[in-house]
Amino acid sequence: MKAVKFLLFFISIFIVGLTVDAQMVDSIVLIKTNAGCPKWSPLDNSQIAYHTVESDNDYDIHIMDDDGQNDYCLTCNHPDLPNRHMGNHAWYPDNNWIAFIAEKSSYYLDNIVHGLAAPGIGWNCDVYMMSINTGSVFQITDLPTKMTAMDPTPVSGVLGPFFSPDGTMITWGEKIDSCGTYDWGEYVIRIADIQIANDTPVVSNIQTLQPELCRYLETNCFTSNSEKLYFCGNLYPNQTEYGIDIFSYDLLTAQIDTMFHTQEYFDECAHISHNDNVIAYLSTEGMPNDTTNNNWWSWAKGEFWIMNPDGSNRTQLTYFNTTGYPEYTGKRIIPAMIDWNLNDNVILVGLAEQQLPAFPSTLEDQIYKIYLSGAASINESHMEFEKELIKIVDLMGRETEDKPNTLLIYIYSDGTTEKVFRVE
């Protein structure tokens, strides 16, 4: 028996260049204010960890249910923590541990430069891990840092610990010296083995990645097979911190690839979907850069973008800073953090919104969910979303089963339809 399928009508999602089809983003929803760095619990997405500024003006880490219920502070007033700035965290794959950065209890001019220890900057901080079940705390790094005016020790710091999906590695960015056009510092990337033995994290075999000297480096994420690490930095000649690019590092071959290169735009926080098809990232592309002003938080703005894992087909996803779009609030937006849900059809993002027009530094962290039409995938010419057949109807709109020799209409989960006539 020979079956022939005639495709009579098909509506596809087609995106070219930087044009975003309306079906690509279903909605963008604000879920929490005064909250940043949102991360879903990796096993089930049932909880979200985030950091927030408490009444003492220090950051702490909270955990809440995905719907915002049962919110509690994980790190507040913990007897085994320095209880200054804490955040910039990551879940261990088993949902039972969180790694984060914590400001040292004391260092040179700590009351004056305290703001530079905030999550996302991380000067004078170390990496810690905490058991969510028991509250046990373990210090992963204890970096030397400048303690007095005459102390020659450079100011140290850490950024963004991340775990590999298989739970065998931990990585972080580490400040080792002062350097750079805007003095962000000289950084290296640490990649270490980790195992949880007898309810204790054991870190060993710490390796160092430093492709160029005197560069800013920040870790972003691993691929699902734990064989590749994405990071960002300003590795090109004469490239400042305001023009950092996204790179991949193959852990098996040690090969470094540039996703794409733009000398003038800031591209950061690459996070790949669980199916390894799409990278979401943030960028200042198309936005003005004030390269004469080192206080980037007073002028920077950007959007969330997506691209292929090889850096091709970059596509703008949000328009928080552009009038005429639903997410536009009339306030300056700085994108900050990204996480995918397990189905790859919702992106959890953190951003900072300027609150007072006359005071650029009045920034409030906020968490949004970006609902997509399906699990995203990209090829060279267009972007499509994986979709499921949810219903079959006849020409009168009556639901029916699939059957040959009859003109039927297939209705898919992304809203597209397809007229099918199958001959047997």
Query: How far apart lie the N and C ends?
Result: 7 Å
* Continuous helix count: 0
Number of domains: 2
The helix fraction, in percent, is under 10%
CATH superfamily of the largest domain: TolB, C-terminal domain
How much of the residues is beta strand, in percent? over 45%
| Uncertain regions spanning at least 5 consecutive residues | 1-23, 379-385
Query: What is the 3D shape?
Result: globular
Using only C-alpha atoms, the radius of gyration works out to: 23 Å
Mean pLDDT, to the nearest integer, reads 87
Order of helices and strands: EEEEEEEEEEEEEEEEEEEEEEEEEEEEEE
The CATH topology of the largest domain: Neuraminidase
Q: Which structural class fits the helix and strand makeup?
A: mainly beta
CATH architecture of the largest domain: 6 Propeller
Strand neighbour order, sheet with most strands: 1-30-29-28
The CATH class of the largest domain is Mainly Beta
Total strands: the figure is 30
Please summarize the sheet with the most strands. 4 strands, antiparallel
